[in-house]
Amino acid sequence: MNQPSNHLSFRECTLSDLDTLIQISKDTFIAAFEAENEPEDFREYIESAFSKEQLQKELLNQHSQFFFVFENVDLVGYFKVNKDQAQTDVKDKDSLELERIYVVGHHQGKGIGAWMLQQVIDLAKDNGMDYVWLGVWEHNPGAIRFYQKYGFTKFGTHPYYIGDDQQTDWLLRLML
């Protein structure tokens, strides 16, 4: 695996980051999933999930945190974690959900995703969590292999909607 070539850092997003968060959220999600989805459902999902109102609501939720990741001064990705009732499925006070983790396209393949995942694991440990869990699309074998490589195991599934299209996410967990 390639190691990040430069210094990586991350910081928590605030409301002043909202416009940048909207843009990186849309750009990375579109790059990752647009080709595999029905265009109308996909457009509807993007407009809803990454709207200013929705992301502002998520930023203001005390149990959710967004983090921007920088390589030197360049924004190269972001991740979102949820605790307690902000979790999309499990809602276990002793777990941390990794809801989103995305690296900007031309920065992929540099080990940044692995570095970000380690930061999430460290956050969970620092907060006394028993495990980290996430949902990953069943038709994303590369992501599934990535998480399994780091010790995540499947413990269930849940539905995930892109517009009206019901898809299935595998629920993966890493015990700490």
TrEMBL record:
Residues 8-176 form the N-acetyltransferase domain. CDD domains: NAT_SF. Pfam families: Acetyltransf_1 (PF00583). InterPro entries: Acyl_CoA_acyltransferase, GNAT_dom, N-term/lysine_N-AcTrnsfr. Signal peptide: none annotated. Keywords: Acyltransferase, Transferase. The keyword Acyltransferase applies. It comes from the Bacteria. The keyword ATP-binding does not apply. This is GNAT family N-acetyltransferase. It comes from Flagellimonas algicola. The lineage of its organism: Bacteria, Pseudomonadati, Bacteroidota, Flavobacteriia, Flavobacteriales.
